[in-house]
């Protein structure tokens, strides 16, 4: 009697993604304890759906890269603003000390 390999559609699609990412069908099938023929059938069956998902993930990855670049720009601006703020606070403290020396009763 033949053993049937049953698993959810999401799992099947994940295995198809592995194959489409560049791994050999035989390697992925043996890694998960199944027949390469079954996995090949799943690849044919779900390839179009998975391709759409992979393209969407690539677009999301590109957006993340763009966000990372803009984040780095914001971080540089923030660092320069904090440096400027630190310089201004230091200048304020120096001026307060000078005012206190000239007017000791001043708060």
UniProtKB/TrEMBL annotation:
<dbReference type="InterPro" id="IPR002514">
    <property type="entry name" value="Transposase_8"/>
</dbReference>
<feature type="coiled-coil region">
    <location>
        <begin position="54"/>
        <end position="91"/>
    </location>
</feature>
<dbReference type="GO" id="GO:0003677">
    <property type="term" value="F:DNA binding"/>
</dbReference>
<keyword id="KW-0175">Coiled coil</keyword>
<dbReference type="Pfam" id="PF01527">
    <property type="entry name" value="HTH_Tnp_1"/>
</dbReference>
<dbReference type="GO" id="GO:0004803">
    <property type="term" value="F:transposase activity"/>
</dbReference>
<protein>
    <submittedName>
        <fullName>Transposase</fullName>
    </submittedName>
</protein>
<dbReference type="GO" id="GO:0006313">
    <property type="term" value="P:DNA transposition"/>
</dbReference>
<dbReference type="InterPro" id="IPR009057">
    <property type="entry name" value="Homeodomain-like_sf"/>
</dbReference>
């Amino acid at each position: 009697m033949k053993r049937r390999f049953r698993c959810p559609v999401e799992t099947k699609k994940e295995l198809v993604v592995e194959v489409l990412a560049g791994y050999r069908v035989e390697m992925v099938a043996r890694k998960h304890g199944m027949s390469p023929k079954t996995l090949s059938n799943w690849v044919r069956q779900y390839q179009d759906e998975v391709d759409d998902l992979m393209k969407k993930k690539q677009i999301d990855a590109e957006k993340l890269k763009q966000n990372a670049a803009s984040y780095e720009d914001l971080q540089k601006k923030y660092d320069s603003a904090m440096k400027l703020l630190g310089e201004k606070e230091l200048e304020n403290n120096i001026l307060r000390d000078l005012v206190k020396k000239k007017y000791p009763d001043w708060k």
